[in-house]
Amino acid sequence: MNKELLYEDLDDSRPEGRTFTVDRKATVWEVLTSERFFKWTLLIPLVVLLIIFMLYPLFYCMYYSFQEWGMQGDALFVGLHNYRAMLNDQAFLEALGRTFKVLVICIVAEISIGLGLAILWNRDFKGQGTVRGLTLLPLMVAPLVLSLLWNFLLEYDFGAVNQLLEAVGLGKIYWWSPNLALYTICGITVWQWFPFSVFVLLAGLRSLPRDVFEAAKVDGAGEWYTFRRLTLPMLSPLIMIIVVLRAMWLIRLFDPLYGTTRGGVKTELLDWTVYRTAFVYFDIGYGSAMAIFSLFLTIAVCAIMFRLLMKSFGEV
Amino acid sequence: MIRKLLFWVITVTVLLAVVGPLLWIFLTAYKAPNDIFTTELRKIFIFSPTLDNFQRLFSSYPFWKNLGNTAIVSVISTIVVMFVSLPAAYSFSRWNTGGGHLLFVTISTRMFPGVVAAIPFFIVFRRLGLLDTHAALVLLYTYFNTSFATFLLYGFFREVPKELEQAAMIDGYGRMEIFRRIVFPLILPGLAVTSVFCLIWSWNEFFYAFLFTRRFATTVNVLISSFWGSIEVQYGPMAAGAAIAILPTLLAALLMQRYIIRGLTFGAVKG
């Protein structure tokens, strides 16, 4: 190559050496795709979407949570009245209690089943692809369809589950009795979501370093000891993530209720209460207050669970 | 030996518990009412199949129209989500735009309980005359799918080596061209996985569809739920409708198993 030519091109001190002189003003498109602004240009659609769909509803809900409004006429400013009413609302508090119950039962059950099966299936065996593919299925089906399905499977007289129980010699169970219905709904939810835990933990187990386990084996560590001292602590970040994700989704549990009890027989949960208040009674002010509460609850629960789990895993 | 036996006993039990109920939908779809409402256990599997349920579903209910609505809304919202998430995820992964805060905000929209958006949008859509339209559902589905899609794509973009882009820049490509001709082809598999997720979630969504549609834009899930009436429950047509409605997602699960599992665990394992 001709060295001189190359230097000439790069020499800024000589005006004729510059190759990118632009006389006209840059067009909007050129500015948007320029090195400096391109990264922000890419974000324009997202930011617009976030403002419309996140900030706007949030402020709207907050605004109406201080008002009394039935979707018609003028809204009336009532200050904190809605929030105060909420704390004295027996139905709401019960729904809140039930939501916590569901949260704990489902998460504990899902993670226990998930951990068990993940450890069981963390090896190469014949038909492992089929096993995984079939286990994935409940996650792929609409929760609403599943709730309707289970509603009939658990029917007292004609439901397949009760018929099987009777054939085995155990008596029929009235799954939708006020004492049991909430647990039945938990069962349905666990049935649908345990594969999520299985797959996340399975992926986690696969990514663990092998040599550590081999070393433990050489040192004569028992299986239970290895599990408690090695596997569990190393999986703890994943378990934490499952807990937080599931808590987020469980707080807004709605579909399984719609297909089964519709909030009856002592199964009304938080989201159902908000739905009923805002969309059946059209009490927008009160409904908004509950929705805002539900949002902050989600944030708080996730934060607290995160802390607690961090602590407990730190001590293992 | 005993361990192996135990392994298969547990595995088969789990699989039966998972597949049994789903199989039951397909069996019930072909059953006459007196085979559905029976206390004879053997009739779960042994019955004379009939197509009555499907015929009733197709003739008395707007099943195909509702299925079409679901498909239209799912596909359009997925396309819109891609137009929003793809550039955003690229920006996040390549320049860490916003120092991670903006990405966190995007992801945290998943924390939002559905009702927080439902109340304001119900009122606004009512005022704009958007209730019971496809557009309303497309907007809402775009809203709840964007955060996950962005996050998933963010992971896929991070796997594209920076050196490729730098090489292209030396060759004189502009930013737009690099994105279009270098990065986009490489991200296509990831784009496909993300799209499938958005499609499945839109397809399965019920809460918004139930609140925001009445007659015109009802999705198939809303139709299926309407068979669970307060007066009578029509299990035959319900099972027939469900059998068709869940088929696409089940097929997706079986055909794209590896990718779907990867996508599901992706956020958890890498995040």
Q: Describe it for me?
A:
The complex is a heterodimer of chains A (316) and B (271). Chain A is mostly helical and 316 residues long. Helix content of chain A is 71%, strand content 1%. Chain A has a two-stranded antiparallel ribbon. In chain A, strand 1 (67-68) and strand 2 (76-77) form a beta hairpin. Chain A is globular. Chain A starts with a helix and ends with a helix. Residues 1-18 of chain A have low confidence and may be disordered. By secondary structure, chain B is mostly helical. Chain B has one domain (62-270): MetI-like (MetI-like fold, Orthogonal Bundle). Chain B contains 14 helices and no strands. Chain B has helices at residues 2-29, 33-36, 52-60, 63-95, 101-108, 114-128, 134-158, 162-170, 175-204, 207-212, 220-226, 235-245, 247-255, 257-270. The longest helix of chain B is centred in the N-terminal third of the chain and has 33 residues, at 63-95. The radius of gyration of chain B is 23 Å and the shape is globular. Chain B starts with a helix and ends with a helix. The chains are: A mainly alpha (316), B mainly alpha (271). The interface between A and B is large, with 92 and 89 residues.
What are the SSEs and their pairings?
The complex is a heterodimer of chains A (316) and B (271).
Chain A: H1 3-10, H2 28-32, H3 38-41, H4 44-65, E1 67-68, E2 76-77, H5 81-88, H6 90-121, H7 128-140, H8 143-153, H9 160-168, H10 181-206, H11 210-218, H12 223-251, H13 255-259, H14 270-280, H15 284-315
Antiparallel strand pairs in A: 1-2
Chain B: H1 2-29, H2 33-36, H3 52-60, H4 63-95, H5 101-108, H6 114-128, H7 134-158, H8 162-170, H9 175-204, H10 207-212, H11 220-226, H12 235-245, H13 247-255, H14 257-270
Helix pairs in contact in B: 1-12, 3-12, 4-7, 4-9, 5-7, 7-9, 8-9, 11-12
